[in-house]
Amino acid sequence: MMRSLLLLCWVALGMTLIGSTVYAQDEPQDDELLKEGRLSLKFEPFRIAVLRRGRVTGTADLQITLQLRNNNEYEELKAKLPQLRSDMVSALSSLSRRRWLISRPIDPDIVSRYLKPYVDRRVGAGRLDIYVLKALIDPA
């Protein structure tokens, strides 16, 4: 009896360790998503309220990185980060009211395409690429 209980605990522990190892390997690294050799501007995570009929139904957490196409423009674009963040918060708030539901995942490609005109207006067209590294919705 004691031997079977010990064996069961040993198997459960082994399965837990194997499961967590596989999960950690499946998760993409931020550096792998960005192109090598280009500088990037990383934002603090965005936390946007998801609203339906004027009520908060959840929150969306997004991690967004802008990657420069020309590394020589880094200092100029870094100075514009506060304005870019403000524009992006406005755009994401608008997008959350129109498209996001707590029952569906956020499509990072839609977020990138939606933010593109706001970023291009602030810094000029074609100077940055937008990458959404994380997009999660948490119900309230």
What low-confidence regions span 5 or more consecutive residues with pLDDT below 50? Answer: 5-33
Q: Determine the mean pLDDT.
A: 79
| Top CATH class | Alpha Beta
Instruction: Give the distance, in angstroms, between the N- and C-terminal Cα atoms.
Output: 46 Å
In percent, how helical is the residue content?
40-55%
CATH topology: Tetrahydropterin Synthase, Chain A
In total, the number of strands is 4
Major sheet description: 4 strands, antiparallel
* CATH architecture tag: 2-Layer Sandwich
Please count the helical segments. 5
Shape: elongated
Order of helices and strands: HHEEEHHHE
Strand fraction: 25-35%
How many structural domains?
1
The class by helix and strand makeup works out as alpha+beta
Report the radius of gyration as a whole number of Å.
Answer: 21 Å
Question: Which secondary structure elements does this structure contain, and how are they paired or packed?
Answer:
Layout: H1 2-26, H2 30-33, E1 40-42, E2 46-52, E3 55-68, H3 74-78, H4 81-98, H5 108-123, E4 128-139
Helix pairs in contact: 4-5
